[in-house]
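Lab notebook, bench 4. Still working through the backlog of constructs that have no structural model yet. Next entry is a single chain of 484 residues. Request: give me the structure tokens for it.
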Amino acid sequence: MDEMRPTSGAAAHLGLASLFPTGLQAVYAECRRLYPDQVNPLQVTAIVKYWLGGPDPLDYISMYRNVGCVAQDVQEHWHYISMGLSDLYGDNRVHEFTGPDGPSGFGFELTFRLKREAGETAPPTWPAELMQGLARYVFQSENTFCSGDHISWHSPLDNSESRIQHMLLTEDPQMQPVLTPFGQVNFLQIVGVCTEELQAAQQWNGQGILDLLRGVHVAGGPWLVTDMRRGETIFEIDPHLQERVEKGIEADGSNLSGVSAKCVWDDLSRPPEDEDDSRSICIASQPRRLSDKDTEQIREALRKGLEINSKSVLPPIGGQRQSHDRPQQSLGHLQTQHASRSRKDSLESESSAAIVPHELVRTRQLESVHLKFNQESGTLLPLCLRGRLLHGRHFTYKSINGDTAITFVSTGVEGAFATEEHPYAAHGPWLQILLTEEFVEQMLGELQDLSSREETKLPKEYSWPERKLKISVLPDSAFDSPLQ
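Model written out:
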């Protein structure tokens, strides 16, 4: 982020339109449609563009004053619109040009609506830095966002003392999709939420919580305007909303099929000196990397979690794509939701066929395993069991510290290499654990203290000797060393 400055409004002057790249013109045109009287909005711009080595992927972030809508009880607010996640230039300087029929660049731009405080004459610029941070994550991970996604941020969005510390994403209620010669651009709006609202979105689904927020004026209203001074959650404002969430979880389960997490696993079946022991794979100073095939399969598993089928399917391993070594995450505690898609993947589901065993390089059946999670990851275990496995689905923890992955699967998941006969199976550093419904119910009873919002004293250990399974919930510091 370099500076805030008024634009020249050149895209609005048709005589200079030819000087502007076609993709940029298309986004400007949609902004002009919505704000015809603000042809020269304030912008935050990157002085050194990303394609010239600058740190900020978004070339521009325009900031408009929106008067709201009295008829819909929408308050006045500032409207921020990014430019740079889509292909603005069409010449491969930033995004690979793929033609007009698919997504332009990553296929979307970000927007944000911030309540205008009394007496404000200019928009605050901190939302621009927030948007740049999200854009950096997208560019570095090549994972895109979708409506209903959640972002666990763990800090007030404006670096104040606000309770608004996380985000949901939804379609912008006013910006319409744009067709350009470089593809289609959608507009995804950032919505600031409290911790309790984020947790509800994790346990149920983002769209359900967004609908609840739309019904509470001070929490966003129909256009989901973020108020950083909001001091109450929607559940404190209207306690009946918690019951709606509980009923939604009971009926629908959770749409969250995976998170980036602090986690490791140990194979207790073998001595530590065994070269193939998972302890050397998972927590050695230089852990063995997931193969390209495994990485793609986990990504597909996370992406397909949104699909509600009669049978949940782990997609087949496909070895045709090349894997690019990208940082797993760049935003601290940002969690990657199932609906996030990789730009390197087709936006359509490739296949729902089961994994063919001979496609696997090597799969090992394990007799006994020890799972280790930090507290944040551990608190998601009841969600994994109740919201996913009891509904016949799967859930994956992907380590942020290495290439370790832990996937829990139910007996209804096709394509898993863990089976009822061999419930613990590993493919390199990727562990699959198959849990029967009976065992899930037993685990939920013993792990219910993890659902408490009170601070948990760590470490905590849970053990099922007859099942040869052990789970430890450890402080974050335990994951700072390569040897936990």
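Notes after review: The two ends are 37 Å apart (CA to CA). The mean pLDDT is 82. Flag for follow-up if needed.
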